[in-house]
Amino acid sequence: MNKLILLASSILLATTLLGYGASDNYKTLNAEYQAAVARHQKVLESAPLKERRSLRKQHPIGDFWPRFEELGKNDGQATLWLVENAKKSGIKKADLADFKRKGYDRVFKMENSAACLSTAIANLAGDARTVGEEFVEGHLQRVLAGTASRSAKGLATFKLGGVLRASEDAERAAAGEKMLAEYEARFISEGAIAIDFDATTIDGHEFKLSDYRGKAVLVDFYGFW
Questions:
Q1: pLDDT given at position 20
Q2: Are 127 and 16 in contact (CB under 8 A)?
Q3: Whole domain around residue 181: which residue ranges?
Q4: What is residue 113's predicted lDDT score, i.e. its pLDDT?
Q5: DSSP readout, 173-209?
Q6: Cα(63)–Cα(197) distance, rounded to whole angstroms?
Q7: pLDDT per position as a tens digit, 90-138
Q8: 116 and 193 share one domain
Q9: How far is CA 216 from the centre of its chain?
Q10: Do 17 and 45 belong to one domain?
Q11: Residues 30, 13: one domain?
C-alpha cells in the first residue's frame, strides 16, 4: 500500500508541477514574471548587505499582481497563481483564508476550469489547513460527483482521502483510509488504466501519457527525500 501510494504521489505531483493545462496567456505572463524575479534576485545577491532590506521590498510581484488579477477574471491558472502568491503579495494573515476560498470558488465555477482542474485540486488539498477541511471536502466531492475526467476524479479521490485520513476525527480518518483503498483499486492496481498527464521533453516536445496507449512505456520518477 505504501509503495503504491508513493508512486501515486509522484505521478500526481508531476502532473501538478508541469502546470497541467495552462493557457498560452498564462504561460506568457508567468514567464515574464519568472524572468523579472530572476533579475531581481540577481540584483539582490550582488547588492551590499545594507541595501538588501530595501531591495527586498521592490519584489516584482507588486507590478505583476494587477496583470494576473485581470487575466484571472477568465483564466483559472492565473487565479490559482493569485491564490498561491497571496501571502507573498502582502495580504494580511487574517484575510488570507477568505481570499483563498474566494479564489478556489471562482476557479471551480469557471466554465473553462477543466484545463487547470488537476492543479486546482492539488493546490486546494495542500491549503486544507488554511481554508478548512470542510471547504476542501465540499469542492472535491463535487468533482467526484460531476463530469470531470477520469484523471481529475482519480486525483480528487487521492487528495480527499489524504485530507480525511489526517483528520483527528476517527470516522473521517476511517473514511479517508477507505477512499485511499478505493483509489488504489481503481487507479493504480495492476491492469488499471494509468492516470493521464502532460509532460514536456528536454527538447521542448509536449506530449500526453495517453499518446502512447497500446505501447510499452517506462515512466521513471525520481526525487530527493
A1: 44
A2: no
A3: 2-23+107-212
A4: 67
A5: HHHHHHHHHHHIIIIISTTSPPPP-EEE-TTS-EEEG
A6: 33
A7: 899 999 999 999 999 999 988 666 768 888 998 999 999 999 999 999 9
A8: yes
A9: 29
A10: no
A11: no
164 lies in the same domain as 123 = yes
User: Are residues 113 and 206 located together in one domain of the fold?
Assistant: yes
The reply to whether 111 and 170 lie within a common domain is yes
User: 47 with 113, same domain?
Assistant: no
When pLDDT is averaged across residues 13-34 and rounded to a whole number, the result is 70
CA distance 80 to 72: 8
198 has which bridge partners? Answer: 208
Spatial contact of 156 and 123, defined as CB atoms under 8 Å apart: no
Please spell the DSSP secondary structure of 68-126, one letter per residue: HHHHHTT-HHHHHHHHHTHHHHT--HHHHHHHHHHHHHHHHH-TTGGGGHHHHHHHHHH
What percentage of the chain reaches a pLDDT higher than 90?
A: 55
Name which of 127, 176, 192, 183 is nearest 12 in CA terms: 183
Between CA 163 and CA 168, with CA 164 as vertex, the angle to 5 degrees is: 105
Domain tally, the chain: 2
pTM score: 0.75
Q: State the pairing for strand pair 206-208/198-200.
A: antiparallel
* 85, part of any domain: no
Range 2-18 burial, b when 16+ CB lie within 10 A, else e: eeebeebeebbebbbeb
Same domain, 150 and 205: yes
